[in-house]
Design goal:
Radius of gyration: 44 Å
Strand content: 15-25%
Number of strands: 11
Length: 241
């Protein structure tokens, strides 16, 4: 049988008028005669504390004091940003001017598709090994005037001219008078693979050609569509030699 502290007259003190004061603000407290009666309540309290402890640890706090996970992450992040800034200042940058003509490919410049095309005699030409050159992809267009003037531009800059036709290699004999053997080649691209891979989103306009200025390292220095005049790429061709 426990003692009700709220009914214990010893805890009541009379005020100046002789009236007993109000009991303690926590109300009625029962103190059991046998402490074992509190075992169930103690077990519930311990179980509740065990449920809260993982949540405290996840938040960087523990029962023993403030956690160190949060401050440690801040320190690591600060060190990482400092190292990135430090090494970024010394990282080499390669510009288009530095890479051109030195066997290295300038940043942002694409490599010509790795295609091997054949001429009218069946000889194979790998495009990546053909530079420096002007690739004039005429497709099914005769483009006699464009081919003739392109040959003149190629000869003036001492680079090759590859005229790619579809489905067979175009006949250049009546158009081009070669002054240097092997400088102008007619190649066949039966399936039009070169045009599809270089300009996949559109076909050239009728009566025009696709021009690729090919560097000696196999990079496409310039790609132009709907070309009708050699003057459109003459300046770029002068940079290939």
């Amino acid at each position: 049988m426990g003692v009700h502290s709220g009914d214990d007259e010893r805890h009541r003190k009379p005020d100046q008028d002789g009236v007993s004061s109000v009991p303690a603000p926590w109300g009625e407290v029962v103190i059991p005669d046998d402490i074992a009666e509190l075992a169930d309540e103690a077990a519930e309290v311990r179980q509740e504390l065990r449920r809260e402890r993982p949540l405290r640890r996840m938040g960087g706090r523990d029962d023993t004091g403030p956690g160190i996970i949060g401050p440690l992450l801040v320190v690591l992040l600060t060190m990482t940003m400092a190292l990135v800034s430090l090494f970024g200042g010394f990282w080499p940058r390669v510009s288009a001017e530095d890479g051109a003509g030195k066997g290295t490919r300038p940043a942002g410049v694409r490599t010509v598709p790795d295609l091997t095309l054949s001429d009218a005699n069946g000889s194979e030409v790998r495009l990546r090994d053909a530079g420096p050159a002007i690739i004039l992809n005429v497709g099914r267009c005769a483009c006699a005037d464009l081919i003739g003037k392109s040959a003149a531009v190629a000869g003036g800059n001492r680079v090759s001219l590859l005229v790619v036709g579809q489905p067979t290699a175009p006949d250049l004999a009546p158009i081009v008078r070669q002054t240097q053997p092997g400088q102008v080649l007619a190649l066949a691209d039966p399936s039009g693979a070169l045009a599809r891979r270089v300009v996949p989103d559109r076909a050239p306009e009728k009566g025009s050609a696709i021009v690729i200025l090919l560097g000696g390292d196999g990079s496409m220095r310039q790609v132009m569509t709907d070309v009708r005049s050699a003057e459109e790429f003459a300046a770029g061709a002068a940079q290939l030699k």
